[in-house]
Amino acid sequence: MISKEQVLKALSNVDDPDLKKDIVTLGMVENLEIVEKKVQFDLVLTTPACPMKEMLVNACHNAIKYMVDSQAEVLVNATSRVQKNHRDSDALPNVKHLIAIASGKGGVGKSTLSATLALALKETGAKVGLLDADIYGPSVPTLFNVHQSPQMIEKEGKSWMIPIESHGIKLLSIGFMTAPGQAVVWRGPMISSAFRQFINDVEWGELDYLIVDLPPGTGDVQITLSQQAPLTGVVLVTTPQEMALTDARRAVDMFQLDAIKKPIIGVVENMSYFTPDDAPDKKYRIFGEGGGAKIAAEYNLNFLGELPLNPKIMQNADTGVWDFSLPEMLPYMKVAQEIARTVSVMQRQ
Ligand SMILES: Nc1ncnc2c1ncn2[C@@H]1O[C@H](COP(=O)(O)OP(=O)(O)O)[C@@H](O)[C@H]1O
Ligand SMILES: [Mg+2]
Questions:
Q1: pLDDT classification of 181: cutoffs 50, 70, 90
Q2: Which residues contact 129 (CB under 8 A, 6 or more apart)?
Q3: Into which CATH architecture does domain 4-80 fall?
Q4: What pLDDT, in 10s, does the model give residues 78-130?
Q5: What is the pTM of this model?
Q6: What is the distance in A from the centroid of ligand 1 to the CA of 202?
Q7: Which residue's alpha carbon is nearest to atom 15 within ligand 1?
Q8: What are the domain boundaries of the chain?
Q9: H or E element at residue 77
Q10: Which residues, by Cβ under 5 Å, contact ligand 2, an ion?
């Protein structure tokens, strides 16, 4: 007979490498059931995008087979429960993590990363929304090929906006409400009130992650969002060259100001290299090398990975057609997993 005690003792040798504690102490083992040689339990991860899922499942198998019974039939059901971030705000009570994508400079790939991050997290099974906060140059309508106005409903004596769903992601953009190319002139107070609406009057439903695509730089939108919404943290995007780094530093400085003080989840470097189809082993570093890692080191931030310059990605971005089963999406999945993992670790600290 295999006992629960034996199994839990064996599993307490399996450590979560990020949280640096064993999975039993962390409360990740649930619904343990044993019928003769059959051992079955849920392994509850902190994110469905956990990059170590497979490794942990294998470690559980090995621990039970080596330490309890080599004949055991082990069934690990890897699931997840995303924990809500620590917050002092009542806004967005059903959103577990609000993650902003920021940069010092325009054109570095913030919107593309916002979209691919949302898609990648969705692909892992998370519930995801994407708020296009670039009110000066909204990209979400193009990135998802969605050009319609959101519906409004009346509930609890007020009007709620319903996000538009595409690729399983709940989307909202000021671009849904204006004609393409139509310029919107925004003044400070209007930005504040538009944001309050985006945050408080939208029927987002239950979300594990709400991604916010910010405009470039360090303006009213960044400040309003930081002060009015329960941001888990900010992902900073940069390209490798020195010109981009100067602006990236300014953005880091802003989020670290006392009045704002939002955690920086880490730095993603975009357009890091180009690999031609006919030379799959080559990485041409067109814009220089190591800029993102340099900024991360300077400010003691996590480096979340590099993304290649890839014309196929640009094509997807322009047409709003995405397919995560294609090999070109792999670097985006890796960066998304790294972001989700870092958020989980921040949560536990
Ligand atoms: N890794 C990439 N490979 C190829 N094109 C990219 C990549 N990242 C972004 N782009 C393209 O670069 C342009 C700017 O990207 P965008 O995401 O709009 O930047 P931002 O939001 O920072 O202004 C877009 O045309 C986009 O399709
Ligand atoms: Mg953009």
A1: low
A2: 95, 118, 163, 169, 170, 171, 172, 204, 207, 209, 210, 211
A3: 2-Layer Sandwich (3.30)
A4: 999 999 888 777 889 999 999 999 999 999 999 999 999 999 999 999 999 99
A5: 0.93
A6: 28
A7: 109
A8: 4-80, 95-348
A9: strand 73-80
A10: 110-111, 134, 139
